[in-house]
Amino acid sequence: MRLLTVVAFCLTVTLSVATAPIDQMMKWFPGEFDNYDQLEKFTMAHITEEHDKLHSIFFKASLPAFSANVLYVQQCSGGDPSKLYRQRLYVLKSVNDSVTMDIWQFKDPSAFVDAHKHPELLAGLTPNSPKVSITTGCSVAWQYDSQLNQFNGSTGESCTAAIKDYPVAGQHEYLITDSNVLSANQVWIHEQWYLFDGGVKGKKVLGKVHPDIETRSNPIRKFVGWLAIINPKEANGYSTMYNVVLFDSGTVVRALDSKNQSLPYQFELAQASYADKPPPIFKLAFYEDGKGQYPGNATDYVWASPNAVEIGINLRFVQGGFKLAPEEHASAGLHPDDTFYVDHQWDALQAQIGNTVQPL
Predict the structure, then answer these.
(1) Better-scored residue on pLDDT, 272 or 300
(2) Which of 26, 118, 320, 328 has most Cβ atoms within 10 angstroms of its Cβ?
(3) Which residues are paired to 31 by β-bridges?
(4) What is the pairing mode between strands 300-304 and 310-314?
């Protein structure tokens, strides 16, 4: 298990003199991020580098005993929310024109799972609480670069950890460094581990990286929708799924029939760009088993502008539609009452689409 992941972001607008760096960072930090686009580019370019699909949640928590600026961090791997591998508190404080971010660990992380949904789990925590401890030597120093219009963060060479059987077999001590970038639309995490047994630093040690991984993530949005797949075994000729939740980060759902049996199709929502050239697109894709390769090489797909709040597909035998989830409406500038695809509306929705979910 890795001990530390640090994040930084790149700006798309120049900071005004009146904007304190920590205030700007706290505007960009909260949200959910995923590195799907990076992995898709690897697939399309036939790059075999081993890389986790990383889903990161940064939630602004109210913990005044630590600081006015605290983030609860929860990360999962493989695109599976159940595969949690890191939970932390990031405590940010201004230091002159820079920002220092301390990393705090939970003694029992399981007690704080989904604290972004249940903030009451964090209530009462203080720096003196036995439930948390600071990761000594692993604080991140942030500086704003006006030329590159971005924040840069690094840990220096003071963050060490004793870990067994990762990433090298046996009990070893590691020096862990991060050199990262943070923007309004990307999080780059460049984490490097060096064998550090006996506290020996220098070229010999720093030349052996275990591992050297850069993860590039983008902000993601939540969508809710329906899917229908032609199936002669069903009474109405279609297997239909309602209240399907997908993020636009390459999240995938397996098609199921009315008896919850798997069908040979997967569906995906994603923000993607090709050959590393913007602008990106927003796509709804489907993969037929044996005829497509996830991620990237879909059997077929439809696309829209990256800021689209609705997307649909109709290939006669495969149909569906997704709309931005209500809790995302405020950030998209939509009216709070523009709800769609919520439970009480499904009967009306079925009546609305009933004549389209059939062969054309």
Answers:
(1) 300
(2) 320
(3) 58
(4) unpaired
The one-letter amino acid code at 45 reads A
CA distance 242 to 344: 12
pLDDT at 35: 85
- 131 and 108 in contact (C-beta within 8 Å)? yes
Indicate if 190 and 305 belong to the same structural domain: no
Same domain, 167 and 228: no
In a domain, 38, yes or no: yes
pLDDT in tens, 80-112: 777 898 999 999 999 988 999 999 999 999 999
List the domain range (segments joined by +) for residue 342: 222-353
Preceding amide of 279 cis, omega within 30 = yes
Q: How many folded domains does the chain comprise?
A: 2
* Same domain for 212 and 324: no
74 within some domain: yes
Q: Which of left, alpha, beta for 95 (phi over 0: left; psi -120 to 50: alpha)? A: beta
Structural domain contains residue 15 = no
Start-to-end Cα distance in the chain: 52
Give the model confidence (pLDDT) of 187-208 as tens digits: 888 888 888 887 766 555 656 6
* 248 and 192 assigned to the same domain: no
- Boundary-marking domain end, from 168, 192, 219: 219
Cβ pair 240, 227 in contact under 8 A:
yes
